[in-house]
Amino acid sequence: MRFSPPMRFFLTAAALCVAANASTVFNFDNDSLGTSTGFTDTVNGLAATFSSSADPGGFVVYQSMFETLTGNVLGDPGPAGLDDLALSVHFSANLSAVTLDFATSDFSIPSPLTLTAYENSKLIGSASATGQFLSGFSFPEGEIAFAGSPFNQIVISSPATDFAVDNIAVATAPEPATCALLGIALLALGVPALRRRAVIHQ
Fold first, then answer.
1. Cα gap 135→150, rounded to integer Å
2. What is the pLDDT of residue 23?
3. pTM score above 0.90
4. Same-domain status, 95 and 141
């Protein structure tokens, strides 16, 4: 099937927007056990730098002991031996959404986990979630998600003494130029169609 030049232009812009929103997952499975913060992982061209106030060694990559967090996970305490830490993740591009799996070190009542999103130092928003004890496992596990205006940093914290995270799935925010391109393409297709419809109905 052959497309007209305006349609080809529109399809290219739409493909760029879809690609910009594709999900990228950081799961620590390619990190060596014992890797500790601060460190940077890159997936699909997107870099994520993991750090904490206790670095070097606030959080560490270790083998999962959980149900929903699989393979390797990132948790505290790391080699620094400190608890009650927040985990910061800086991304090399703006995001529109993030989800991740987590577990907290609770033995009776699960503690909430909070994810706060920033664009540089500007607060964008936050979300909180509480895990559940799963049959056969010692610690509560859950999933947390946030979506909103573009952001490039998240801070993860909990009143639990320690916590672990895994499967950090992010969607990159489309560049303004890409959205403008798609808008122009829609106009280029829509205006002639409206004119033809107006001529037909005269």
1. 38
2. 76
3. no
4. yes
